[in-house]
Amino acid sequence: MLGEGIAKGLVETARNFFGSYVSKDRLTTVQFPEERLPSIEATRDFPFLVYDGDDWQPGMRCVACQICEKECPPKCIYIEKSKDKKPDAVGKPQFYPAVFNIDVSVCMSCQICVEVCPFEAIKMDTEFELSTDNRFSGLLWDKERLSKPNSYYREIHPTDAAMSDSLLAEEKAKVEAKAKAASEPKGSATISNQPQAAASSTS
Amino acid sequence: MPKDLSERIILLFTIFAILTVTGAVAAMSLRNLVHSVLALTVAFSGLAAVYLLLGAQFVGLAQILVYVGAVAILVVFAILLTRDSGTVPLISGGSWRLLRGSGIVVFAVFGVLAWAICHSSVGRHTVHLSHDTSIYEIGNVMMQRFALPLEIVGALLTVALIGAVTIAMQEKEGRR
Amino acid sequence: MGEAADQFFVNLLHRLVDHAPAGVAPILSSLLSVVAILAVFASLFAVTTILERKGLGRIQNRYGPNRVGPFGFLQPVADGIKSLTKEDIVPHSADRVVHYLAPLVLVFAAFSLYAVLPIGRNMVLADLDAGVLFFFAVSSVMGLTIFMAGWSSRNKYSLLGAMRAIAQMISYEVPLILVSVTVIMAAGSLSTVSIVEKQAGYIGVLPRWYVFTPWGFAGFVLFMIAATAESNRSPFDLPEGESEIVAGYYTEYSGFKFALFFLGEYLGLFAISGLGITLFLGGWAAPLSFLTWIPSYLWFFAKLLAMIALFIWVRGTLPRLRMDQLMNFAWKFMLPMALIDLVTAGVWHFLPQGALRWFVCGALVVVPYVLLSRWLMQGWKLEKRVYRFAE
User: Residue B15: enclosing H or E segment and its boundaries?
Assistant: First the structure.
């Protein structure tokens, strides 16, 4: 019958219209910025540098190995190595970056820098409300802007942070064991002991 | 500002007449074909205004409805469908000799017509209508006294329509 | 008391005009009425844009605009500021004069339509003897402006959209005028004021509007469909919908001229709804006899808002019709139904009052509708589709 489908359609839309006032679960709109959808744990937006402890300069994990700079596809990372060394996350004296700039307007959030970093130093942040009114310097972030504490990292990516922490703890234990074995009485290092020491250092 | 009615009517008539004549002259002389159609539409509207000024409501409004609303659109469609779209249709200009000769003929004809009209009965007496013709009366007259001409005109238009459709159909099938 | 409220604006106009010298008085009175019409219907346009967006949003299970002003009701102000301050771009090879004139003539024609609509008791700008004819004459000018807009843009797609729009408009003018002729036949006059007066009065409590007769109801439905098509509204908005895909006839317009086109379209919609109200819904008459204490102009605007709501409802429901479907519908369905409606109106007039009249006219409207729609829907397969591989 001509017109039947139209009538049914009109009834359906009327039901939608009046139902949207009555039942709140019809309207799935999230009124940004008053309400926000919770982001999932694996959200990634732009990189940040992790530092341990309270002070960002000595606690920074990055050793300026420049692997992330070389691997970055749009080449948005710029690193300059320092001249002196400082102890890194596991205690070994390493270089640190004097200049570490990321141009966030170029970054494409591919996470390659995170995947290749051997020192758990650079991770992906979840912040996206980054508008600024300065087109060039507003989105070119330096080392200080990029550094965020490990506690923050544990907040935004709990699982990844736990894994990262355990990895670093393992590394640290290894380094400490090596240091202890090395600082053990060197005098008692006989020929019979040396293979043992060699074996324990390579395990 | 003219105060009484006849002066006001004369002023309005002058304005509408100038509008109509300008539109007609522009329709003939503009180089762009679509511009000339639009100028012709202005001429039609000027005529409708003159009808309305004379108190002939039905004729004036029917003039707008039929001429501006249908005939102008028809002419526009005819222009657009018979030329490749996108190119600006132009009319070629005439020569000055042609204009002189045709101008003489036009003025001669106009002069003779004006003389004839002014010296005829229409030009000598002012006609006073006994009452304003209402549309009810027009309808009444059309259905009673002029019913046969109305039906014949209707039949004529139907025949023309059917003929046009038949020709178009044959052309389409011929092209296929 | 009710009389004073009803004639409030009429008395106000008279009082304002009385202070003017005698020669200027009629011009001043017309001028004030014109200003009132401009103000009222332009603000109705602004309100309608936001109502439409919020209404469509609610139909589509979302909020409409709700940031500007309380519940978003100052959104038209923001839209107006935006369209006024945008750069006016005219294509290099476009025809500047015609490009400039098209929206102007459209808005001029659209505003002129309100001159014959009786908005309340004694509240019509021009009580023409041929009011309905004036309405149709001026609304046919709007088709020409669409052509001007499409052609002057010097854009193939604009031109194509304009031609389709004109074809649609002139095709749907035929059933529109035919159903108006049925009302004119029943009322015996072309003047809108007398058509409204013929529908005044009540049988008991119920009004004597033409929509409450079989031929009037069918005529009203046909009128609404034709009015939707005349204003290029969904589901007949192929000329506009093309602009989302390729280009439409006003794609080369930006800024204020685009806003003028929008304004002209909506004004045309209000005007044709106003005509529908005048012809079928009794104009400014109240629906029930004990509600006549509410002023007449409030009833007119209430009915107008109801029709706007209906248009928005239909827009949110139906998908767009294709060009050939549109034309088929106009010429193969609506025109025969309009002619049958004309016959039915005549039969209604000549039969004596009573149940027989209702039965005969009802049958005369319903039976051809069923048969015609059956015949036209013959080749269609409307059952649920069965897929070979996708299940």
Answer: helix B5-29
Q: What is the dihedral of CA B25, B28, B32, B38, to 10 degrees?
A: 60
CB C283 within 8 A of CB C118: yes
Phi, psi of A149 (to 5 degrees): -70, 165
Most confident of C62-71, C115-124, C301-310: C301-310
**How would you label C142-176 residue by residue, b for 16+ Cβ within 10 Å and e otherwise?**
bbbbbbbbbbbbbbebbbbbbbbbbbbbbbbbebb
Tell me C292's DSSP state: T
pLDDT in tens, C314-358: 999 998 888 888 899 999 999 999 999 999 999 999 999 888 999
Q: Taking a C-beta distance cutoff of 8 angstroms, is the pair C153, C79 a contact? A: no
Residue showing tokens 């749907």: C172
Interface residue of B38, B58, B77, B132 to substitute, partner C, most C CBs within 10 Å:
B38
ipTM surpasses cut 0.95: no
Mean pLDDT (whole number) for B79-89: 63
Asked if residue B64 lies in contact with residue B45, where contact means CB atoms within 8 angstroms, the answer is yes
C-beta of residue C17 within 8 angstroms of C-beta of residue C1: no
Q: What are residue A77's DSSP bridge partners?
A: A102
Give CA–CA dist C170/C153, Å, rounded: 22
Instruction: List chain A residues with CB under 8 Å of C66.
Output: 31
Using the beta-carbon criterion (under 8 Å), do B68 and C128 form an inter-chain contact? no
- Comparing CB atoms, the residue among C63, C314, C316 nearest residue A29 is C63
Q: Parallel, antiparallel, or unpaired: how do β-strands A93-103 and A122-124 relate?
A: unpaired
| Residue whose tokens read 């000027």 | B46
Per the structure block, which two tokens stand in for A145?
């802007």
- Within chain C, what is the greatest distance between any pair of CA atoms? 84
- How far apart are the C-alpha atoms of B4 and B1, rounded to whole Å? 9
CA distance A64 to chain C (A): 47
Report which of residues B30 and C109 the model is more confident about.
Answer: C109
- Residues near A129 by Cβ (< 8 Å), separated by ≥ 6? A33
Whether residue B1 has pLDDT greater than 60: no
| Distance in angstroms (rounded) separating the CA atoms of residues C180 and C219 | 8
Identify any residues that bridge with A86 across adjacent strands, giving them in sequence order: A94
Tokens representing residue A147 in the block: 């550094």
Longest CA pairwise span in chain A (Å): 104
DSSP-assigned states of every residue in C222-291: HHHHHHHHHTT-TTS-HHHHHHHHS--TTTT--THHHHHHHHHHHHHHHHHHHHHHHHHS-TT--SSGGG
Q: Which two tokens stand for residue C196?
A: 């409204």
Query: Closest by alpha carbon to C319, among C253, C387, C236?
Result: C236
Instruction: Give the separation between CA C184 and CA A150, rounded to whole angstroms.
Output: 83
The chain C residue lying nearest A10, using CA atoms, is C317
**Position C149, amino acid:** A
- CB–CB of C60 and A16 under 8 A? yes
Dihedral angle of Cα C14, C19, C25, C30, to the nearest 10 degrees: -50
What the block records as the tokens of C339 is 């002619």
Contact C254, C88 (CB under 8 A): yes
This prediction has a pTM of 0.85
Cα–Cα distance, C91 to C71 (Å, whole number): 38
Q: How far apart are CA C196 and CA C179, in angstroms?
A: 16
Kindly give the residue spans of alpha helices, DSSP state H, lying in chain C.
2-6, 8-18, 25-59, 75-85, 96-112, 131-152, 156-187, 192-198, 214-230, 238-245, 256-280, 296-317, 323-328, 335-350, 355-376
Q: How many CB atoms lie within 10 A of CB A60?
A: 25
* Residue pointed to by tokens 């009540």: C202
In a 13 Å sphere around the CA of C340, the CA atoms on its Cβ side amount to: 23
